[in-house]
Write a structure and sequence with these properties.
CATH topology of the largest domain: endopeptidase fold (from Nostoc punctiforme)
CATH class of the largest domain: Alpha Beta
Organism: Sulfitobacter litoralis
Distance between the termini: 32 Å
Number of domains: 3
Protein name: Cell wall-associated hydrolase, NlpC family
Structural class: mainly beta
Oligomer: single chain
Pfam families: NLPC_P60, SH3_16
Helix content: 10-25%
Radius of gyration: 19 Å
CATH architecture of the largest domain: Alpha-Beta Complex
Keywords: Hydrolase, Protease, Thiol protease
Number of strands: 23
Strand content: 35-45%
Order of helices and strands: EEEEEEEEEEEEEEEHEEHHEEEEEHE
GO molecular function, one term: hydrolase activity
CATH superfamily of the largest domain: endopeptidase domain like (from Nostoc punctiforme)
Length: about 270
Amino acid sequence: MTDRRLHPDPERITQKTPAQIIVPVTDLDRSPTGPRDRQALYGEALTVLDRADGSAYVQLTKDSYCGYVNETAIGPVTTPTHVVTAPATHAYTYADLKSPDVSALSFGSRVAVTQTEGRFAQTALGYIPTQHLAPLPHHFSDPAAVAEMFLGTPYLWGGNSRWGIDCSGLVQAAFLACGIPCPGDSDQQQSSFADPVPDSGHPPRDIRRNDLLFWKGHVALVLDPLTMIHANAHHMAVTREPVQDALTRIAKIDGPLTGHKRLSPSKWP
């Protein structure tokens, strides 16, 4: 059966127009009236497949995810030059930290810098502190360290930003920031991302940093053999948690561990 998330409905394709997100964050919905499947951030590239009644049927470039966004959230293609590398940042009216802030952007947002003025970069949104930006292309080296930047972020089903994120959104953000393509949902990550760790056992014996642990509908990223990080509804936030504590707690609610995977060395940039 064709996965609607990755394969556009051919009956809904009336165009293939490149575009990008022009708001700080927007929902990518399953239908024009919801519910939310995922989110897209400022500067993300996409292809518009259809427009009707204020909604656009689109496919995201980063992971091929298909869904509906509000037409006001998309605009013509520009060329981003920088990416937000701080957990979050503000765009100011002027190159002055005391001037009014006009927008907030999450980690991973992409902007086009037209010039710099002191410690600020001018963009279409306003002036952003240069300390919060890095020129594209930019890759972090450690997904686990990226995930830790989201500690305390509220849990949000389908979320992909610093304002709210879910388990698979956190994993995707961590690996994409390191230049490693990663699907958007936990079932996709378990089925098509990384490789099973052989003879892992239950509980897993050979746990390493940046391994992925899977449960039914949930995924966590390993920080060290004893600790993992995950966006979870139990704490309603991104938290660190002892692996054994999580195994015991989650097994009582959603069942046992269903997978333990590790990215092969050949897939690292």
